[in-house]
Specification:
The protein is built from 14 helices and 23 strands. The protein is of the alpha+beta class. It is globular. This is Circularly permuted ATP-grasp type 2 domain-containing protein. InterPro entries: ATP-dep_Glu-Cys_Ligase-2, CP_ATPgrasp_2, UCP005522. It comes from Agaricicola taiwanensis.
Amino acid sequence: MAAFDEMTNADGSIRPAYAPLAEWLRTAPPDLLTYRRQEAELLFRRIGVTFAVYGEKEAQERIIPFDIIPRIMTTKEWRGLTQGLEQRVKALNAFLKDIYGRQEILKAGIVPPDLIYLNPAFRPEMAGKSVPHDLYVQIAGIDVVRVDADTFYVLEDNARTPSGVSYMMENREVMIRLFPELFGQNRVAPVENYTDELLATLTSIAPNSASSDPTVVLMTPGQFNSAYYEHSFLADKLGIELVEGSDLFVKDEVVYMRTTKGPQRVDVIYRRIDDEFLDPLVFRPDSTIGVPGLMSAYHAGNVTLANAVGTGVADDKAIYSYMPDILRFYLGEEPILKNVPTWRCREPEALSYVLDHLPELVVKEVHGSGGYGMLVGPHASKQELETFRKKLQQDPEGFIAQPTLALSTCPTFVESGIAPRHVDLRPFVLCGADGVRIIPGGLTRVALKDGSLVVNSSQGGGTKDTWVMDV
């Protein structure tokens, strides 16, 4: 099936949303795009927008490739998408509250209990514990792909510590600097107020014991973390302290931050540290980046952690396959956004089908991320197919499989000129005690290699600015 071209109709005409951009590209001098791309790379290097690739000996700190041709969506398209995103995050929060509480969905036989109890991201320490305002996922990154003019599929849910929002914001800043004339001619919804909305969300979830002006901090593992740039960027934009575990301590089940003026109570921690490193008294005793006693303060209701401990169970790709049922169970509604059809290889019939159709399917590790541990059947060699066949036979519970979707394409400036490349989209959904906020746009990731469907930066993908426009 041919991929949906977001800019061009089948008859070669330009879709209305892209008409102003297409006209600008038609009249732009031939060398302008090359010059602006070089400028963009210089700006990103000067700003220091990097990410790290663990396990590689060379070039561990990289500049994410940036495409200077924006992806464009209409306000109407965005409105429909956000309704589905809000619905999905509400269901995720209800699911997490339930599995750490009454477990009604397990009793009803909707989700198999072993997918919860044997999940490495499930935290039994959270069982029977309440969290402030009953919110587990305050910041979600829901990856979606488009297959036609009206249909978006959710590719995966990122409910643990979703990253990439700094690239969304820096992409926009660079585009405004490089193409002021385009922004002057078009009504593009702003994204720069994301940090205002994030701070409002974080402030709203402070414990009831907090003061009227709660203290919010961003907790990072430190400068050697792959996403450290984003941590420091967000703390700066939010106007809050960027702290490491050694900057915090717990006394009488209250978290304090060390300052030059003495201890200061901390009410909300936007943590970018995985669960197992948060508190060496509860999780990994060898963690040197956590805070001893943090979980006791958390369970006492004296500090809010965003996102909540244990949310990673909702990131699981096997759990993802149950999301339509999960949504119906808690909300009594049909999903607005579709799931990609998924075969659970743990089920014998599904495994048999997957093994028989391996060259046609995408196979993913249940606990995988970042594009690692994945097989794209149509692009795989015979050796890769056989390797995965053995993996599936040895550990079928560790994998799911999906059809190879024809991801939509957007015009992209590559070495050969302007050409269509496959894209996905990560909108960022904020869920606070005062409601849901979704900034119009998100992070568009683009597969820069011709024909590739893998958009992850760790696998050679790049990013684009995402414009939501009144057209």
